[in-house]
TrEMBL record:
Region of interest (Disordered), ranges: 1-111
Protein name: Uncharacterized protein
Source species: Lotharella globosa
Basic residues biased stretches: 13-28
Superkingdom assignment: Eukaryota
Amino acid composition bias (Polar residues), ranges on this chain: 51-67
Listed Basic and acidic residues bias regions: 91-111
Length: 372
């Protein structure tokens, strides 16, 4: 592409002969001082202006960005190009730091361990071993050594931690089975649980708790499992009455020593009352009478015997009553409390579904009404 030159040929030859380099230096100096445009009557071509404008912009943008609008002249082949560079980008304002109050305490560096020790621990689920306790309650009526009325037995299962730690949620799988092979189902559960078929649940002991309780059943019990049977005899005279209670404990359901209390409730005008008890010696078949006597409460009109009995034992309670007026025959109530027993009255047993051996104990309280 041919370059377009302004001015007549004679002017070009004269500028070459008289030292165009010196005039170029003077022209560059005049551009900086503002006098570079004197003595020129015609403007350069558009192509030459665009070419030099891009070069001047690249040079001036980095070095003169804080000066605003600057006129820069560039001499090319004896001509001066005047251009205006692009406006410079303003620098961001500096944010001065705020002064701290004079009495303010110096800031302490943050220790990551402070967050570790101060943050509350989230409840975690663990699989630590648990123990189970089955508590049952039963009331029935006996006459002449036979069960004549039995109410439904109710039971509860207490699932407890083996350790004292309560900083985790404990989850465990247990199942209820009866001794005759039939499965038993939970009636209700007093905590969050998930059923796993008939009689099986995932027990969850919540964070911060030691144990949970489940109502397991209300079912009929077989009469062969009752812990005690008995019969009662009365003999009346004019102003006296005599009673005799004979009883027998069940060795199949009373595996451990049981606290037993016999209570005779009297009616009518009682002057005084006394009683004694004895245990039958299985070897000699003789009754060995206890040295302590029964206690009588005149306010409640109750005669009370306190015994500790084993399964398979038999014995008797006797009472003599002095009356003002004749009275009707009364019944004796035997309350048997067996703790830490090996079996339950209903025959239920707690099974560990997680594959381990579950330490389960069985306790019950039985109220047996022996009628004459």
């Amino acid at each position: 592409m041919s370059r377009q030159l302004s001015g007549p040929p004679s002017a070009r030859s004269r500028s070459k002969k008289k030292g165009g380099r010196k005039k170029g230096k003077k022209g560059l100096k005049a551009a900086v001082t503002g006098d570079g445009a004197k003595g020129h009557s015609k403007a350069p071509s558009m192509a030459s202006v665009a070419s030099h404008a891009s070069q001047a912009t690249d040079k001036s943008h980095g070095t003169n960005s804080a000066m605003g609008s600057v006129l820069e002249e560039v001499k090319e082949e004896g001509k001066v190009v005047t251009m205006t560079p692009e406006p410079a980008t303003p620098e961001p304002k500096k944010v001065e730091p705020k002064e701290e109050p004079k009495n303010a305490e110096p800031r302490k560096p943050v220790d990551p361990l402070d967050f570790f020790f101060s943050a509350p621990k989230a409840p975690q689920q663990t699989s630590e071993p648990v123990t189970a306790t089955v508590n049952e309650a039963l009331k029935y009526t006996v006459k002449n050594g036979k069960v004549v009325k039995m109410e439904a037995i109710s039971g509860e299962v207490y699932v407890m931690r083996t350790s004292q730690a309560t900083d985790s949620a404990l989850r465990h799988s247990i199942k209820l089975q009866s001794q005759d092979g039939s499965e038993m189902k939970f009636d209700s559960f007093r905590t969050a649980f998930q059923e796993k078929g008939q009689g099986g649940v995932d027990v969850t002991i919540p964070f911060g708790q030691k144990q949970v309780t489940a109502v397991i059943f209300d079912a009929q019990m077989q009469t062969k499992r009752v812990p005690i049977l008995g019969q009662m005899l009365w003999k009346f005279q004019e102003k006296n009455a005599f009673s005799l209670v004979q009883w027998l404990t069940n060795r199949e359901t009373m595996k451990t020593k049981a606290d037993t209390v016999f209570v005779l409730g009297l009616s009518g005008s009682v002057v005084r009352c006394s009683g004694k008890s004895g245990i039958t010696n299985m070897a000699t078949k003789q009754t060995e009478w206890n040295t302590h006597m029964a206690t009588y409460d005149n306010n409640t009109k109750q005669l009370k015997w306190v015994e500790k009995l084993h399964g398979g034992q038999s014995g008797r309670q006797q009472a003599a009553v002095e009356l003002k007026d004749p009275m009707q025959p009364c019944s004796v109530t035997a309350t048997v409390t067996c703790t830490g027993n090996g079996v339950s009255l209903s025959g239920v047993r707690v099974v560990d579904m997680d594959g381990g051996k579950l330490n389960a104990t069985y306790s019950y309280t039985v109220t047996c009404v022996i009628e004459p």
